[in-house]
Design brief:
The complex is a heterodimer. By secondary structure, chain A is α/β, with parallel strands linked by helices. Chain A has helices at 2-20, 24-31, 57-70, 86-91, 106-110, 153-164, 177-185, 196-204, 233-252, 259-264, 270-276, 282-285, 292-300, 303-310; strands at 34-39, 47-48, 54-55, 76-81, 97-98, 114-115, 121-123, 125-130, 144-149, 169-174, 191-195, 212-214, 222-224, 228-229. Chain A is built from 14 helices and 14 strands. Chain B is mainly α. Helices cover 65% and strands 6% of the residues of chain B. Chain B contains 13 helices and seven strands. The chains are: A alpha/beta, B mainly alpha. Chains A and B meet through helix 1, helix 4, helix 6 and strand 10 of A and helix 3, helix 12 and helix 13 of B.
């Protein structure tokens, strides 16, 4: 079996890498759809709804990119990837962009030959335990059994944190969030650890979310964002500036509702005009037309609208904006200048 | 020699490579070999070129960098500060452990099922038929997941073992079956335990000597010694005597519920049990068929002759049928052992940290060295398989028909 995998890997590397090194934008346009590597199911971030339509915070970014490039937010092919397979799939050209709660790190950016064009969620790793255990701090977890998704940064953070604090633990590796959830609920592990946003999203799907607490300790920095292959800078620019368009749109008050109206004629704000293409030729500079940002915003709204609709406080996931608020409101979301 | 020289030697022409039967097969083989070589060169070259295009090279120095992750089941000490190479080594030992124990259990179950399927008892024979057909006609992965699900969902949590809980330990409060694994007493070796173990070893050698003596005696005089009771006595009495004379040097560390989980004792994790049982049950079905075919391959006349000589059915099977059946059984059994070893790479499905999960899983993922990792994995499984089949071939040559 292993041999087949190896030959398969050789063949895949051999066949697809040639394609991957070509301009991704041309491939996407020729194909007529965007292949977006997504989570295999994390409520609020990326999961199919009852009708099989993918929705979520990460999904919305994929749809915005598809709308900017292809003109239709629905022409996205979602490829569910596990934490183990995601970067290989991206490197091999199976997906055009990976939007899958992936942490931007030095080694991934350099050694894995990826690029992280931006950050769409500032996160950190946390711990969730059943309320019945009576644990109030991560320092009390000595001897606990911890469920953890393999192939993630959380796996390494966990080892570092527990070693630094002299706490012993037993790791139970799981392949997917669903498996981790099942193991945790069956009591096969005392603690489930992943990014706090992931914990909140997972807890929201429980029958009794109130029976589980997320401990106050946040043990790492997890800047999550889309990833593309290193080397195709134009495609990286498109992903980066689509994300920034969504963030800037929130800052300037451009919403899903008023974007068509604002784009119809130049407004008083030149920044909005350049963003929406009523002034200047910014779209052409990244190989798109001038309405690219309008279409991206029209799919699911600006960054704030996407956040509120999928993972905000009004949803079952119930995440506060926190670090992900606009810079004008004390957060870290800082859309680049459109000029 | 003159007449040889006189014969007109046909001059070699290029066309003969194709039309002359003496050269044609050679030509075809050379062309085929060149094509295969070209294909391989193209594949390797393409891989290297494309990896280079992706900015990746092929290097193995990642093996010496810090692993950074923890492994739950470790036969040798391992911390997150050790290297990826050591993590791979821990994984290799876990693979070998489950493969070794799996081969033993699969053989025991397989031989039993195979023999029982030939039983004259209708019910037993049919039950074994159902067992074999169910096991070998469903994918192994499903069995692994079923056993794991049963172990996780149907067994109590450790917290249920507390005062007032619904679960309790079995075997005089020494063994706890929980959804995190089976916790059992662990022996602690004190001074003098080495002597006890040495006596145990001597006893085992003694049993072999006893068997040899018994056979010799039977061949010489026809008298049969009660080998089994004598062997058991030889195995137990000296060891127990030494154990108590030396003041019980081997004590047991019992698992005790403390904090989140059981502390102390020996934890056999559910992932290991699931993989081990599923691999054994699945492979045992194939072994059962191999054993059955081996027994059926021995002519019925052999059994009839044995019965005619008044040999009991048990001893007929033991002394006459099985030794002959082994010649048929061993070669296909080798490939079942190889299958079991390679199938253990499905461990990742239940989070068992075998070499596929450490080197081929987490290490690859944290370092991004897929090709190198898979290459090393392939080499490991290749070497392991070759060693297993080598050992089994040695055994095979000892049981095969001796031609004198």
């Amino acid at each position: 079996m292993t041999k087949t995998v190896f030959i398969g890997a050789l063949a895949v590397a051999g066949l697809t890498a040639g394609m991957a090194s070509a301009a991704t934008l041309d491939d996407v346009v020729a194909r007529g759809s965007l292949k977006c590597g997504s989570n295999e199911g994390l409520a609020g971030f990326a999961a199919p709804d009852a009708n099989g339509v993918w929705e979520g915070f990460d999904v919305a970014l994929c749809r915005a990119i598809a709308a900017a490039v292809l003109g239709d937010g629905q022409s996205v092919e979602f490829v569910p990837l596990t934490s183990q397979t995601r970067f290989t799939a991206l490197a091999a050209g199976e997906v055009d962009v990976l939007v899958r709660n992936s942490t931007w790190t030095f080694t991934r950016d350099t050694d894995l030959a990826l690029d992280f064009p931006g950050i769409n969620y500032y996160d950190g790793q946390g711990f969730m335990v059943p309320r019945a255990l009576g644990v109030t701090s991560a320092g009390e977890l000595d001897g606990a059994t911890v469920c953890i998704q393999t192939g993630t940064t959380t796996e390494l953070n966990l080892a570092d944190y527990f070693r630094a604090n002299g706490i012993s633990y037993e790791p139970v590796p799981v392949a997917t969030n669903a498996e981790g959830q099942q193991q945790y609920l069956a009591g096969a592990c005392d603690v489930y650890t992943t990014d706090v946003s992931g914990l909140a999203a997972t807890r929201a799907t429980f029958e009794a979310p109130g029976d589980h607490v997320i401990l106050p300790e946040v043990v790492s920095k997890e800047p999550l964002g889309p990833a593309v292959r290193h080397g195709d800078n134009n495609w990286g620019d498109i992903v980066r500036w689509t994300l920034h368009a969504l963030i800037a749109a929130e800052e300037y008050g451009v919403t899903m509702e008023n974007v068509a109206e604002l784009a119809a004629a130049p407004t008083d704000n030149p920044e909005v005009n350049r963003l929406l293409g009523t002034e200047g030729e910014l779209g052409a500079m990244i190989g798109l037309d001038n309405d690219w940002a309008v279409r991206a915003i029209a799919v699911a709204g600006n960054y704030g609208e996407i956040f509120e609709a999928n993972i905000g406080e009004s949803t079952s996931v119930g995440l506060a904006r926190g670090l992900n608020a606009q810079w004008t409101e004390g957060g870290l979301m800082y859309g680049g200048p459109f000029r | 020699m003159a007449d040889v020289a006189d014969q007109p030697r046909e001059k070699f022409r290029l066309g003969m490579l194709l039309y002359d039967v003496r050269y044609r097969s050679l030509t075809i083989q050379v062309v085929a070999a060149i094509l295969i070589m070209l294909l391989l060169v193209q594949l390797v070259d393409n891989t290297v070129t494309n990896l280079a295009a992706l900015g990746k090279d092929i290097r193995f120095n990642f093996l010496w960098s810090t692993a950074g992750y923890d492994i739950n089941q470790q036969l040798i000490p391992f911390t997150s500060q050790d290297t990826h190479a050591r993590a791979a080594y821990v994984g290799i030992l876990n693979t070998l452990l489950v493969a070794f124990l799996g081969c033993i259990l699969a053989t025991i179950i397989g031989v039993l099922a195979g023999v029982l399927r030939l039983s004259k008892n209708w019910l037993i024979a049919r039950v074994m038929t159902v067992y074999v057909e169910c096991m070998r006609n469903t994918p192994l992965l499903i069995w692994i997941l079923i056993v794991f699900a049963v172990m996780t969902e149907a067994t109590p949590q450790p917290s249920q073992f507390r005062e007032g809980g619904t679960a309790s330990m079995i075997l005089w409060d020494t063994v706890a079956i929980s959804n995190r694994g089976v916790f059992m007493p662990r022996p602690i070796w004190a001074d003098g335990s080495g002597i006890v173990m040495a006596i145990l070893g001597l006893s085992i050698i003694g049993i072999f000597v006893l068997r040899y003596v018994a056979r010799k005696r039977q061949e010489d005089t026809g008298q049969i010694l009660p080998v089994l009771p004598l062997s058991l006595a030889l195995l137990i009495v000296p060891v127990m005597a030494a154990f108590f004379l030396l003041g019980r040097p081997i004590t047991l560390d019992y698992p005790v519920l403390g904090g989140f989980n059981f502390q102390g004792g020996l934890q056999v994790r559910n992932s290991f049990i699931a993989l081990w049982l599923a691999l054994s049950l699945y492979t045992s079905a194939f072994i059962a068929e191999i054993v059955r075919s081996g027994i059926l391959a021995v002519s019925n006349g052999q059994t009839e002759a044995a019965f005619a000589l008044g040999i009991q059915p048990n001893r007929t099977m033991q002394l006459i049928i099985l030794p002959q059946a082994l010649r048929v059984i061993i070669p296909p059994l080798i490939s079942q052992y190889l299958n079991l070893t390679k199938n253990s790479s499905l461990a990742i499905a239940v989070g068992y940290m075998d070499v596929r999960s450490t080197l081929g899983g987490i290490t690859i993922n944290q370092t991004g060295r897929e090709l190198e990792g898979m290459l090393l994995l392939g080499i490991f499984y290749l070497i392991t398989s070759l060693i297993i089949s080598g050992l089994m071939n040695v055994y095979n040559s000892s049981v095969k028909l001796k031609e004198r």
